[in-house]
Specification:
- By secondary structure, the protein is α+β, with helices and mostly antiparallel strands.
- Helices cover about 35% and strands about 15% of the residues.
- The protein is built from 5 helices and 5 strands.
- The chain has a 5-stranded mixed sheet, sandwiched between helices.
- The longest helix has 16 residues.
- The radius of gyration is 15 Å and the shape is globular.
């Protein structure tokens, strides 16, 4: 066990865990933040996506020791009141159905928009590769474009 000092959603947190513990389990089990979901456990589906230093990161396979001094942002840190342009667009475009993949999908989209404020469909397809069992991919694209437009206005 080792002590790790993390910055999650702008707040300092300290956890005492094995360094190989996936960031997902630190977030959910040690810090009680359950917005980040467990899906496949092998970094394929994207339900566990968070941002580490602004980059979309599949937290189920990202060991806590790899966070270092990085800034972690989870779905809880996207906005306090669901007012982030992506969250607004997600609802306006009726993206969620079952909702399970949505927190990871939103975090992948947020990381994309931080890097590329005006993505093409090809950019979205390449960077938001999360799996949605409900198949709302076209609405995801529409919502990302709408959020990009709202952010640039």
């Amino acid at each position: 066990m080792a002590e790790f000092n993390l910055t999650i959603n702008g707040e300092s947190k300290t956890v005492d865990v094995d360094g190989t513990t996936p960031l997902l389990w630190v977030i959910r089990d040690y810090l009680g933040m359950t917005g980040t979901k467990f899906g496949c456990g092998i970094a394929q589906c994207g339900a566990c996506t968070v941002m580490v230093d602004g980059r979309a990161t599949r937290s189920c396979s990202f060991p806590i020791q790899s966070v270092g001094e990085g800034q972690v942002t989870t779905i809880e840190g996207l906005s306090d009141d669901n007012s982030h342009p992506l969250q607004v667009a997600w609802l306006e475009k009726a993206v969620p159905q079952c909702g399970y993949c949505q927190s990871g999908m939103l975090m992948a989209a947020a990381a994309l928009l931080e890097e590329n404020p005006n993505p093409t469909d090809a950019d979205i397809d390449a960077r938001v590769s999360n799996i949605c069992r409900c198949g709302t991919y076209l609405r995801v694209r529409e919502a990302i474009h709408a959020a990009a437009e709202a952010q640039s206005a």
